[in-house]
Amino acid sequence: MLAGGCGPPRSGDLGPAPVAGPSSAPPVRSPDPTPVPSRELAPSSTGGPVRPSAPAGTGARQPATVTVELWFVRSGQLVPTRRTRPATVATSRLALTELAAGPTPAETAAGLTTLLPAGVEVTRITDGVAVLPSVASVDDPAGRLREAQVVWTLTQFPTVRQVRFGDGTPRGRADYPGVLPPIVVTAPGVGARVGAPLTVTGTADVFEATVSVRVLDAAGREVATGFGTASCGSGCRGAYRVVVGWRTVREQRGTVEVYEVSARDGTRIHTMAVPVVLAPGA
What share of the chain has pLDDT > 90, as a percent? Predict the structure, then answer.
């Protein structure tokens, strides 16, 4: 179990888990009319997961695929997932097309949805500001969350710092407070096949920055537990990384739960459950 923290990192075996239950598209083939620079494929300075399958550069072969991060909606808040598609210089168009296409069946079963309609595209990117048509009306209760989906998805690219909708003021991630749950899981993704040891990553704003993880098998039995500290917590959001291992005798469906242990009564709170497929582990 590994993690980073404001003070000395803490990790280890949790022992018995609390007894209380947890709280409850096809690839784009046409060129972008306003293509963004190919450096959009480079890893984002804000920690976005845009990753070509091979380094791009002078004399190097064009990468075959690119992985982009999409921010869907679950229970009125944003959660991330990823898509790997054929590489394109028009990564902003690819990301919005995938965002509008919506979640996979496994993601839908896990409660993810999208509010973005099809056909929304970036018209230009100038000085770090991506310009799009308005996606929300004044009386649209879901408009703010729809905008947040777009902003969080597009600002993974190093060429985009803010997004302007229509003639409005440019907005960044900080302009949408409260759209993230206390715990965000960036890996593993919903439906992923995972093996041991498993690295669980994400961000969290939890008490004393302590993030707990447990893995459940198909029968709901606990096969692994661990914890670590995020790089910030108790009023600020920090990144965490926890590694856990398990022993299973067959491949099966399972669940990775990331949660906070309540300082008041020791129950699991702010639980994020990610359905996965567990590969046999030694």
Answer: 71
